[in-house]
Design goal:
Blueprint (H helix, E strand, L loop, with lengths): L8 E3 L13 E4 L15 E2 L8 E3 L13 E2 L23 H11 L6 H16 L4 E5 L10 E5 L2 E2 L8 H4 L4 E2 L3 E8 L7 H12 L15 E7 L5 H9 L4 E6 L5 E6 L1 H8 L2 E8 L2 E8 L2 E3 L12
Parallel strand pairs: 5-16, 10-11, 11-12
Antiparallel strand pairs: 1-2, 2-4, 3-4, 6-7, 7-10, 8-9, 12-13, 14-15, 15-16
Helix pairs in contact: 1-2
Length: 306
């Protein structure tokens, strides 16, 4: 079934950046809406999937990365008086301390506890490169929330013919988004995971809780899997009235897919895009804003209180 025209999904194309038509893509299930998407100069081309009627590519996304203007690293911003729950573990609080704990107690690396916890810390460390500040709270009675925190996105100005001195001004900043994240290592990605994420909004800790999809509280839910989003997951996320995104992060800590729905755009992701880029560990996703690559954002390391 086609997703209704009221939704649009951002999807990372799986081909290399050198392909001029698939490096950055905006998946439109109704091509007539392409003209309504601001900040994109687009062209359409057919896809292999009859359900996906067109792919629209952002102008400039096919250029070599060294020719795309970029934004330099910027410290994350904090949200005053944001209180984090006390961590469920007194023995580790990041990937390094967890691995030390594993060696100390002899935890089997094939156990579900190791696999799940290792993936959660890997995701937290990886998303820090994209401006996320995350803490692990996963445990009993966590309401389905594994990671909790904020997302600060430095945003560039549009690419125009402005004088050089105007183009070099500081990037605009939007208030950080509060984020709740569910991490899953699963052999069977299914649409039901989107419904589970919807329930996490209501059960999240006080500073991140949303009572309704339309409350406009500046909260974003993200599902992170170790596998790409299936068609069913994409469609379920597109239908959802809750602001949410999807990240495909490998167990080695490489982001290979980043998607979000229409409601997430309204929460503060307007103008954001994504491209594939080459890195020493292979291809990975880089975020863009109005044609500019957003470089790694340096976490401040401190935020809120426990």
């Amino acid at each position: 079934m086609l997703i209704r025209a009221s939704y649009r999904m951002f999807q990372i194309a799986l081909r290399p950046l050198g392909n001029t038509k698939t490096s950055q893509s905006l998946l439109l299930h109704n091509p007539s809406r392409a003209a309504a998407v601001r900040h994109l100069s687009a062209e359409q081309f057919p896809t292999d999937d009859p359900e996906e009627s067109s792919i629209t590519t952002g102008a400039g996304s096919a250029a070599a990365l060294d020719k795309i203007p970029s934004l330099q690293p910027t410290p994350t911003r904090t949200i005053p008086n944001l209180e984090y729950p006390v961590s469920k573990s007194a023995f580790h609080n990041d990937l390094q301390s967890f691995l030390q704990y594993v060696e100390r107690v002899g935890l089997a690396k094939s156990s579900t506890v190791f696999v799940g916890t290792h993936f959660e810390y890997t995701v937290a460390a990886t998303l820090a490169l994209y401006g996320f500040f995350l803490r692990r709270i996963g445990g009993v009675s966590d309401a389905g929330v594994d990671l909790l925190g904020t997302w600060s996105i430095p945003l560039s100005s549009p690419l125009t013919e402005q004088p050089q001195q105007e183009q070099e001004t500081q990037p605009e900043r939007r208030p950080p988004l509060r984020v709740i994240i569910q991490c899953k290592v699963t052999p069977n990605p299914r649409p039901g995971l989107i419904r589970e994420l919807e329930g996490a909004f209501i059960g999240a800790p006080a500073g991140w809780r949303m009572t309704s999809p339309s409350s406009g509280d500046g909260v974003l839910g993200i599902l992170v899997l170790d596998k790409p989003a299936t068609k069913g997951i994409r469609e379920a996320m597109g239908r959802s009235r809750w602001p949410m995104g999807f990240v495909y992060c490998s167990k080695e800590g490489v982001v290979e897919q980043f998607l979000w729905n229409e409601r997430a755009v309204a929460q503060g992701l307007e103008g954001l895009g994504a491209v594939k880029r080459y890195a020493p560990q292979g291809q990975q996703v880089a975020l863009t804003f109005k044609g500019r690559i957003l470089r790694c954002v340096l976490p401040s390391g401190t935020e809120g209180s426990e």
